[in-house]
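During the no-cost extension, the postdoctoral fellow (Dr. R.K.) reprocessed legacy sequence entries with the updated structure-token encoder. One reprocessed record is reproduced below for audit purposes.
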Amino acid sequence: MADSISYLIANHRIRVVGDDVAAMLRTMPGFPVFENEDGEPEWLIEFGHKIEKPAQWTELYHFVFEIEMASCSFAKTDDAYYFIMEPAEPTATPMLMRYSGGNVVEATVGLNPMLLRFALWMAVSMLSASSKMVLIHSSVIVHQNKAVLFLGESGTGKSTHTRLWLKHIPDAHLLNDDSPILAVEDGVPVVYGSPWSGKTHCYHPLRFPLAAAVRLSQAPYNKIRRLSVVEAFSAIQPSCPPALAQDEKYGDMVVDMLSDVLSVAPVFHLECLPDEAAAWTSHDAIFK
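Re-encoded structure tokens follow.
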């Protein structure tokens, strides 16, 4: 029987199966703190399958995973979704994943740690969307036992702004610096820590209600404005997994979840400088 390892991530039990993969995950930063062998898994990610790239598929999204310079494609056929990662090195082995619905994602052998980490991110994204949860590109601060999502494209200052909170706002803590999990539970938006936190090793298996989301943009001044529901959707949706947004079924799932989030939680747009006043501007808009 193949080796396996189980996790409790965002209150869902996930088992990853595969001898080499399980051994690698036991020492991979971020994952050990989420390890939990209690109970039966809801979702399975099984490595070691022989998966061929279909002769015909509909490519939904293509991008380059820059850390490993791997060419990545998210695609579908009539009966399954596929995710393929092809490293730039001609001799490197591609990694393929197949999801035919239900609770199992099948994958080929994953021996590259960085490709494996991202492949698991994609697998959890596919498995979890129907459960009103999504891995969202964000840096998240916890304050007064509530979570604040800071959103923006890479380079807009999410991590800088959260560092300003950590430095200047009392009782502010970092939950995750790249891919926390946004979920709706019994109509309440909540944020979980995850094993994916970018370059910042910040991995906490914790859950907090969502206080607000803040879209950041750089400016020569500090100014914050609460967005209308339509504006709020446009501010938060681009931070959800872009590959899923290209598929009608997954796109509808994300829209449904965000509708529940926006019916409860405010979303702001902060135009700001990288200074202490910017942190207090967003703090006061949310908590005062």
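The CA atoms of residues 79 and 244 lie 16 Å apart. The radius of gyration is 19 Å. The remaining legacy entries will be reprocessed before the final report is submitted.
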